[in-house]
Amino acid sequence: MEFNGTDKRYNQYSQHLKNKFGAKVYKITIDAGFSCPNRDGRISTEGCIFCDDGGSFSQAHSNRLSVEEQVKVGAETLAKRFKAQKFMSYFQAFSNTYKPVGELEKIYKASLNHPDIVGISIGTRPDCVDDDKLKLISSFTPDYYTWIEYGLQSVHDKTLKKINRGHDYACFLKMYEKTKDMGINICLHVILNLFETYEEMMQTAKTIAKLEPEGVKIHMLCALEGTKVAKMYENGELSFMSEDEYVSTVCDFLEYLPQNTTIHRLAGNGLRTELVAPRWIGKKLDCLNKIDREFLRRNSWQGCKFEL
C-alpha cells in the first residue's frame, strides 16, 4: 500500500499539499501575540505541564514583527533556503483564537496578503472557539486551504486532568462537530507517553479514527526547560519512550487511522536548546526513516486496521 504516488505507507501531509498545489508548500509560523486561558488566569496560571514559555512556538520569527512582516520574512527565507513557491500561514504559538472576533479577522487577513499564500492553519484549544469565530474562519475556505488544529492530546479525561489541560473530551467533541459542520479542515494533535498504558494510547487512536479527521499530528512527550514535565523528569517521576518504542507505537497508532487522514507530523523538527529529554527527538530524519522501515518490516500501512 502506497500513498500520494510515493513509497510512504502513511498519508504524508507535505506530499498531499504538493499534489494539491503542484508545488511543495511550506508553513510560515506566525506569533501574533496570543495568550492562553490556561496561563492568564481564566482557567489556570500554570498551563499544560508540557508547555514552555514559547507556547509551542518554533520561534522562527519575533512577535515584535507585524503579522505581514513575519509572513514576508518567512516567505523570503523559505524561498531562499528551499526554493519554496507556495506557503501557508500557520498561527502556532499559544491559543490562536483567544481574542475577540473583530481582532481575529484583522490578524488572519493580514497573514493572507502575500501573493503566494495558499492556505491558513490556526492552532488553538476547543474552549477558545465559538460560533462567531468558526464563521469567520470558514469565510476563508472558498479562497484558501483552511485548517483548525486542535490540541486534543488524549481522549481520556483522567489524562487531560493530569496534564492540566483545562478542558475535557466532551468539550473538544462538541467543538469538533461544530467545526466539521462549518466545512473547516481539522487537524488533531495527540501526545504519546502521557502517563498512559499502551492500551489507552491505542484507544485514543481508535476513538479519533471514528471521527475521521482530515489530519493528525503526533507528538512524543518531551521535557523542555522550565516546564513541569522537566521537573518531574529531573525528580525521577517519569521516564520517556526509547526511539524504538516510539517508532513501534506510532506505527500501531497509524494502523488504526483512516487512510484519507493526512499525517502532519510524526517526529521532532530538530534539537532545541530548551530540550532536556529525550535527546533522540532531535534526530527527525532518523526517526522518520525508522518508521518507514518498521512499516516495511510488518508489511502494514496506515489504515490497515481502521474500522468505523
Summary keywords:
alpha/beta, 17% strand, TIM Barrel, two-stranded antiparallel ribbon, 36% helix, 308 residues, seven-stranded parallel β-sheet
Short description:
With 308 residues, this protein is of the alpha/beta class.
Which overall shape is indicated by the principal axes computed on the Cα atoms?
globular
The CATH topology is what?
Answer: TIM Barrel
Number of self-contained structural domains: 1
The main sheet orders its strands as 1-2-3-4-5-6-8
Q: What is the level 1 CATH name?
A: Alpha Beta
Mean pLDDT, nearest integer? Answer: 93
First-last Cα distance:
20 Å
Query: What fraction of the residues are assigned to beta strands by DSSP?
Result: 15-25%
Q: Helical content, roughly?
A: 25-40%
Pattern of helices and strands: HEHEHEHEHHEHEEHHEEH
**What is the structural class?**
alpha/beta
Low-pLDDT windows of residues: none
The major sheet is characterized as:
7 strands, parallel
User: What is the C-alpha radius of gyration, as a whole number of Å?
Assistant: 19 Å
- CATH architecture, by name, is Alpha-Beta Barrel
What's the multimeric state? single chain
The number of helical runs is 10
Question: What is the topological layout?
Answer:
Layout: H1 13-21, E1 25-30, H2 67-82, E2 86-91, H3 101-110, E3 117-124, H4 131-138, E4 145-153, H5 157-162, H6 169-181, E5 185-192, H7 198-211, E6 215-220, E7 223-224, H8 228-234, H9 243-256, E8 262-265, E9 275-277, H10 284-298
Parallel strand pairs: 1-2, 2-3, 3-4, 4-5, 5-6, 6-8
Antiparallel strand pairs: 7-9
Helix pairs in contact: 7-9, 9-10
